[in-house]
Amino acid sequence: MPTSRLYQQFQRLAQLLGSDEREISLAEVADLLCCTPRNARLLLRRMQDQGWLSWSAEAGRGRRSRLTLLDSQESLTRRRLRDLLSQGKLAQAVRLAEDRLDLLTPLLIEQLGQATREGRQILRVPYYRPLPQLLPTGPMRRSEIHLSRQIFNGLTRRNEENGEIEGDLAHHWECLGPCHWRFYLRPAVRFHHGRELVVEDVMESLLALRDRPLFAHLDRLESPWPRTLDLYLDSPDPWLPHLLAEPVATILPRELKGEAGFALQPVGTGPYRVAANDPLHLCLAAFDDYFGLRALLDEIDIWMLPELAERLETHLQLGRDRPELGTMRGESELESGCYFLLQDDRSGSLQDPALRQWLGQLLNPVAVMGRVAPELQRGWTSALGLLPHWREALPAPLPTPAQLPTSLVLACFNQHLEFNECANAMSSLLAEQGIRLEVRTLDYGRWVSGEDEDVDLWLGTLNLEHAGPFAPYVWLQGTPLLRKVWASQHELWQGLMQWRASGAEPGPRALLARVQQQSRFVPLFHHWLELESRVGVHGVRMTALGWFDFRSAWLRPELTHQPAAAQWFVHFLSRLTSAPGPLA
Fold it and tell me: What pLDDT, on the 0 to 100 scale, is given for residue 461?
């Protein structure tokens, strides 16, 4: 393969000569390439071997030779881009292409999907934003939650097939009393950096969570024997095994978790380790020392291409109809969650219950969907509750509010391609009533913190990992924003604590329904999650987060050299570039 230096020298030669054929001396070539005649002769010979030019040398001092360019600068740039992308060197390719998206886009499409390099199976997928926050103890959106499942482990985990809680880092556990649980850790579990996991890692990881409402009842941890952990609680919690399966409860190496950059390139015990992570490229490599079954795909390359999102979506569906690759099979289901609008209790403008109800009726799902692009409408369906099967009763109508505000502030988080459409639709609806809407775009960490006290409305989206009652409970108790905007809803927070301790009704659904009837929580629409795969691709099943477990996917070896054979990967994940769905 030609070197980068040789590419650069040919590009310089082609740019300076400006024609396909001319008579030129070796000394003149040396001057153009800023080297000695001897090196110029060597470079010309190498370029000729690559088929880029023809050099007919004439012997004798002052004799002029004939130089014919057989390749254009653009063609050579395209070839160089293809070489860089095939090696996974996305950053270098982007720098080389500069503003030539017309050259880069088709080559990116060509490289996406399944590839083989030095005998390793690699899955390359496009994504529309960087992923700098992979640490499960920080604020995470849907895709980060999915990726954390590939990188980390907790004491327990939820079986995606049947929803039951099963062992992960702990192979067994038992409840020794209402406030006393014992967990038995697996032996010989290693972190990605090579050190063996010890019980102190588990203790420090869990104790660090005690300032969160979900873990406030955790009193102390003890280790009576090696690889044995006793958890003592302040109050009974029959849901503890479910809690320890949440992403935030994953176990981190105690010597690294406080280091700078750990959220960007964290270390866990999961089936994949973070090999690289920058604004353009996240590389997950299979962890050979994983305590479970080793992942079948050797490497996952996620290419972050926000400026190409629309172009990629347009092109990635081409080539799906390839009969020689087999027929397509598809899965689709409504997400366990919804897009929603929150009305903030702290807002001076929204203290009137009649005004809150009026706003909830004005910004209803049908009205909002009627003012967004048709391609978005096709992926949504109106919501009557947090989950698709939750259809809550409508509240009793209140009289028309005596006075409408002149302006309102709406906050949403950035790098979500659908929020602009939603906010514009709401702004249009409110403008017709004489209300100006100020749209404030925040980074996700600031949005979920709820620190902005002058916000009236919060636009967000939620995708739960399962539809069981514990999932909405974790969202309600574990989201700082909800604690801030509904600080006055004492009945909600006390009811959630009572439900967790006893399991008695009213549970999370009934408690949230009361907030919904007060128009503090306005469900908007559910998002359709879709996965299409081709016959011959194995081990793929869509999860509740709209992804699939990387470690289980595999492709027959004879298909890995056909670029379109893995087109289903690209088609599925390209939906994240233009229609990211909730918390993508």
Answer: 95
Question: Token pair of 28, please?
Answer: 């003149």
Which residue is associated with the tokens 């298909």?
559
Angle subtended at Cα 423 by Cα 571 and Cα 511, rounded to the nearest 5 degrees = 90
The kind and range of the H/E element at 203 are: helix 199-207
In what side-by-side order are the strands of the sheet with 120-127?
Answer: 113-117, 120-127, 299-304, 281-286, 272-278
Residues 6+ apart with CB under 8 A from 303: 90, 108, 112, 124, 125, 126, 127, 280, 281
Alpha-carbon separation of residue 236 from 79, 175, 214, 473, 478 (angstroms): 65, 11, 13, 16, 19
318: how many CB neighbours lie within 10 A of its CB?
12
What parts of the chain have a pLDDT lower than 50? 312-326, 535-536, 560-583
Q: What is the pLDDT of residue 47?
A: 84
| Per-residue pLDDT at 196 | 98
| Residues 6 or more apart whose Cβ sits within 8 Å of residue 393 | 513, 517
Bridge partners, 338 (sequence order): 462
Using an 8 Å Cβ cutoff, are 297 and 286 in contact?
A: yes
Contact 189, 168 (CB under 8 A): no
Q: Between vectors from CA 478 to CA 284 and to CA 227, what angle results, nearest 5°?
A: 60
Between CA 250 and CA 243 the distance in angstroms is 11
The whole-angstrom separation of Cα 295 and Cα 551 is: 4
